[in-house]
């Protein structure tokens, strides 16, 4: 019955009935419990299967039983318990490559990448031709941001089986996010020859073509994904949910290929509801939506241009941009270097430099179809434009240009630091800093509301070294804390001394260790946006006035003041988080470009483990942020060769160029 049961529910039920009879007659045979678990788990009755395996283990523990139960815990996303079972299994029989691979995966899914890598390597020692272990090793290196090591692991998997679809897909994804679009496309095409209905590869093929300016092929691939309607009751894939947005945006870009970039604006052209749904990653259900016009045959695809065919001064411009872009790379696990983003943001830096210099010399700029003196928003819009070109997959949109309804509810930029058992390792460096901050806020709260118990609270907090240990203490000392609590950071105003704005919100909820949510988010409401805008307006006005003096007389004191104004202005931008994506690199390219306009060049790299946006968000104020940033920027006088570079906006006036 069990063998037939895989094809027919009735047989599965009969098998369970027979096995349950055996158990009631002879309750101490572990293999019967294991057989019953094998039938229960494909039926989705995981908790019953787990209790059967637990019973079998109590009767007679074995490596196989622990591995079997570990696999079920793994499927249930209880990675910590699964890890214990695989560990027990390996202690009873250490030569089990599959158990070793799964042990590695329990680390991988909890964000413990270095431990995962060790386990995958161990599995490969036991079984040298273990394709899945090479694939997982490649994935772990990619998550760490180690491109070369990941490439080597994926290559080894493909040497063992050149048609291994999952490896081709993962390798293609990594190449796309590394900025090697040509190479990525080869992997997606190969993947689709083997699996014509692979949605991920089809979507990525459509995206890669569009990012390279090949709109006809790109939109054809995107349309194929759209035709893959999920069956009733089936969950739609992330690609299926995203593809309609990508196709509409691709059509929009194609129609504007030859329109000067200064004459149109994505934020005002795209319909409000479309932008809102796209940025929030919602299913494409937009009332009365008018589709973008289809491809117009007179607009041809972008032809690939060889680097050598550019004029020598343009070649130099691109090389300088590549170097500047690489200065923005985070040296932190989880950030894969992306050559395409480096080049785009390097060009953004140079264009910001040129535009700011012109503004300080009283020249006007052409932006969004108007000629005017540049405002702070225009300065950031230069970088926004380049960030959009680098990756059309991500909606880089100004949140205050969203429909009013969306803003009144608030738009959340949300980052999970710990979710359940999963740790977001990109932000590990900041856990301690945020923990200290929360402790301080708790003490301030108790100092105001419970001065008698302050000493007891302080003693309890001194014993806390992990975020998850805060919950029990909060429950003990504060009757309101049932399931969790939130803490807000404050951002002091420079314009009105003594005034503070809301920074970001830290949330900790959960009922036990291993089941907590520790997250940070910034909430963009209209009121909060206006307060920050007033702050940035005042700083920009000051910066422009000082910049104009600086151009006439290069006094050292002035340069220093200008540098602090630039960093203060961007400090408020980081805390406001006014874009749906990409705020961080956009702000850093504006810092670098504006500093270059003042005659200073950033020559120091961002230190290992540091994230500039989190430095700004966790700094006590703008002066503290300026000080931290300057400590690594290693500012030096700008090289005179920058003066002779061609104008970025004139060299690349359209999307096609």
From TrEMBL:
Gene3D superfamilies: 1.10.3290.20, Tetratricopeptide repeat domain (1.25.40.10). Keywords: TPR repeat. The keyword Endoplasmic reticulum does not apply. TPR repeats lie at residues 63-96, 131-164, 165-198. The keyword Isomerase does not apply. SMART domains: TPR. This is Tetratricopeptide repeat domain 13. It comes from the Eukaryota.
């Amino acid at each position: 019955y069990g063998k037939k049961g895989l094809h027919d529910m009735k047989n599965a039920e009969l098998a369970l009935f027979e096995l349950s009879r055996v158990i009631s007659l002879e309750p101490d045979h572990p293999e019967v419990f294991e057989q019953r678990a094998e039938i229960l788990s494909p039926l989705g009755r995981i908790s019953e299967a787990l209790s059967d395996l637990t019973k079998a283990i109590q009767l007679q523990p074995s490596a196989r039983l622990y591995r079997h139960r570990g696999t079920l815990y793994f499927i249930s996303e209880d990675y910590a318990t699964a890890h214990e079972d695989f560990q027990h299994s390996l202690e009873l029989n250490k030569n089990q490559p599959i158990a070793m691979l799964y042990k590695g995966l329990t680390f991988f899914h909890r964000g413990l990448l270095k431990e995962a890598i060790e386990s995958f390597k161990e599995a490969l020692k036991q079984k040298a031709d273990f394709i899945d272990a090479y694939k997982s090793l490649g994935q772990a290196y990619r998550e760490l941001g180690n491109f070369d090591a990941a490439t080597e692991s994926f290559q080894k998997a493909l040497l063992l089986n050149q048609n291994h679809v999952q490896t081709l897909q993962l390798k293609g994804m990594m190449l796309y996010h590394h900025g090697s679009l040509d190479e990525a496309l080869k992997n997606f095409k190969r993947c689709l020859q083997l699996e014509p209905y692979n949605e991920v590869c089809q979507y990525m093929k459509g995206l890669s073509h569009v990012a390279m300016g090949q709109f006809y092929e790109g939109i054809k691939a995107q349309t194929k994904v759209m035709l893959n309607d999920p069956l009733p009751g089936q969950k739609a894939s992330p690609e299926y949910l995203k593809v309609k947005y990508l196709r509409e945006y691709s059509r929009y870009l194609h129609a504007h290929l030859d329109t000067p970039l200064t004459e149109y604006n994505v934020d005002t052209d795209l319909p409000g509801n479309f932008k809102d749904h796209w940025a929030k990653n919602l299913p494409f259900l937009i009332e009365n939506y008018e589709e973008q016009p289809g491809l117009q045959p007179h607009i041809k695809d972008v032809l690939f241009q060889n680097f050598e065919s550019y004029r020598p001064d343009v070649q130099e411009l691109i090389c300088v941009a590549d170097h500047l872009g690489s200065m923005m790379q985070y040296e932190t696990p989880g950030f894969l270097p992306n050559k395409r983003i480096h080049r785009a943001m390097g060009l953004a830096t140079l264009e910001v430099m040129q535009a700011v210099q012109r503004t300080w010399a009283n020249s006007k700029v052409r932006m969004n179809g108007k000629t005017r003196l540049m405002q702070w928003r225009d300065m950031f819009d230069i970088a926004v434009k380049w960030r959009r070109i680098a990756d059309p997959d991500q909606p880089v949109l100004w949140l205050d240009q969203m429909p009013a309804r969306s803003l009144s509810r608030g738009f959340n930029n949300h980052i999970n630091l710990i979710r359940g058992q999963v740790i977001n390792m990109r932000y590990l460096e900041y856990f301690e800093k945020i923990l200290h901050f929360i402790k301080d806020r708790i003490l301030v709260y108790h100092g105001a509301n419970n001065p008698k118990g302050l000493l007891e609270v302080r003693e309890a907090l001194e014993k806390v070294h992990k975020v998850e240990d805060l919950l029990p203490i909060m429950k003990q000392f504060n009757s309101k804390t049932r399931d969790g609590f939130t803490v807000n950071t404050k951002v002091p105003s420079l314009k009105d001394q003594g005034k503070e704005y809301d920074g970001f919100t830290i949330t900790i909820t959960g009922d036990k260790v291993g089941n907590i949510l520790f997250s940070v988010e910034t909430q963009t409401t209209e009121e909060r946006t206006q307060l920050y805008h007033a702050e940035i307006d005042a700083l920009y006005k000051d910066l422009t006035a000082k910049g104009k003096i600086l151009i006439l007389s290069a006094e050292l004191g002035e340069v220093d003041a200008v540098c602090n104004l630039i960093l203060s202005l961007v400090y408020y931008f980081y805390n406001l988080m006014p874009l749906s994506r990409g705020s961080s690199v956009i702000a850093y390219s504006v810092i670098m470009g504006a500093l270059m306009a003042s005659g200073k060049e950033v020559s120091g790299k961002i230190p290992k483990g540091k994230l500039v946006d989190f430095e700004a968000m966790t700094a006590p104020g703008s002066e503290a942020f300026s000080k931290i940033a300057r400590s690594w920027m290693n500012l030096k006088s700008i090289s005179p060769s920058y003066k002779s570079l061609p104008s970025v906006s004139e060299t690349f006036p359209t999307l096609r160029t």
